[in-house]
Design a protein that fits this description.
This protein has 20 helices and two strands. It is mainly α. The protein has one domain: Up-down Bundle (Amino acid/polyamine transporter I), CATH 1.20.1740. A two-stranded antiparallel ribbon has the order 1-2. It starts with 14 loop residues before the first helix and ends in a 17-residue tail after the last helix. Mean pLDDT is 85; it is low at 1-6 and 476-503.
Amino acid sequence: MGDSTPNQAKKQLNGITLLCLAFVICNSWAGIAGSLQLALLAGGPATLVYSILVATTGYVAIAASMAELAAVYPSAGGQYHFASILAPERWRRGVSYTCGLLALFSWLVIGVSVTSIAAQQLLALVSTSISDFVPQSWHIFFVYQGFALFAMLYNAFILKRNPWTHNLAFILTIALFFACFILLLVRGNPKESHEFVWNTFLNYTGWPDGVCFLIGLSTSCYMYNGLDGAMHMAEESSNPEIVVPRTMMGAIGIGFTTGFAYAVAQVYAISDIEEVMTTTQWVPFVVMEQGFRSRTIAIVIVSLSIVMAMTIIIATQEASSRLAWSLARDKGLLFSQHLQDLHPHLEVPIWSLLLVWLLTFLCGFLYLASKTGSSVILQQLSFVIPILLVIARKRSTTYLSPARSFRMPNLLGWIANIYAVAFITLMTVILCLPVTIPTDASTMNYTCVVLGFCLLLGMANWWLHAKEQYNGPAIERWEGREAELTGTFTIPSQPKKVNEGSV
């Protein structure tokens, strides 16, 4: 469909562009590079390497479970639309509303985290180049706000007419990965021993070794943050019931390959693990400098990484705004009558984009830079709701059409669904624990505080607006033989007063 109508977006993203966008958001190897200090603290080289394998098994199960649903119900609402369809009638509004807000909050925290890391990268670069410069919190705050504002303006005025931005960002991140990987192999000599890389477990946390390893999974889970980005761009994609599931699985495949390869090469190239664990500098820069055996090369790589981070922030804000837009169309947010509108000339949900930017701006005052666990938990909780509902519905073909484009064999589907729920349950507990014990205000894990704050915001929005206005997504079922052949459901872009979500 070439023309856009009110509240309806143009379908201009092909499969390649959508895959580029999805991987740019996850950017798994860059996620490892930017947050590896936690894994090194909580287990050292062994945790960093093996945790990627463990986390990937969990996220393969999650991605496959969500891809099956996306193949039947492609919409910008993603997991909260799935929850509305699958939930019992009496619980539909509350369950889908909760799932939608969890997804929206997770995307906001992902954006805050990525923007904060980019700000730290820039200031680490400045402090390395200017010996007497010491970064202060207010420096990080203003750089953070500058990045967030630039991403919002780019989304509003440039990105819609230049979707190839994601293709270029993908090329940049893959090129940067190969550059780093080759440089680590060529310049990182002498290499650490195989014993150091594969069998060295360093516990600086105070927790028992098993708990220590599980805490270190945070870094590896972070490399798959934003996995649902493709789902929220479904309504701007051609053939989303085919493209979105493939994109999600493709992002996992590329992410694991690049993330694991980078982590192993980086650990082999470390020259002084004690310096890494005790430095007061930005740890990822110290690790790169050691691996490349050159401060100059590390500066160049970090400079390019800042450009790459900017593309991630842009893509994150884009996906976040589409999710907010979808919730607004379903009357799930305050001021939905404005947030659901597409700008007639810019062809973007400008008010939803401004909402995402405003909340990102306000979160800058809270400075959630290192709270990667918050985004991981919020995203995982938004995934677990529809997966639990699929299990409760016994993977019925009433809800999972046999003709869907992405289909696991039934036994494998059961295993993936149950394993995904078990993995998310475990990580929800682990990621709320403090990284080190004994703990104090400076080392405390504030994930529970973030979750509590999100709960208060969600309850306030419910009582002020959604309780009376939100009816869940309006969904029309394709009846008869046509539905059997396609195995898809249509979700109108314009919300309806009556919920037609029952199946």
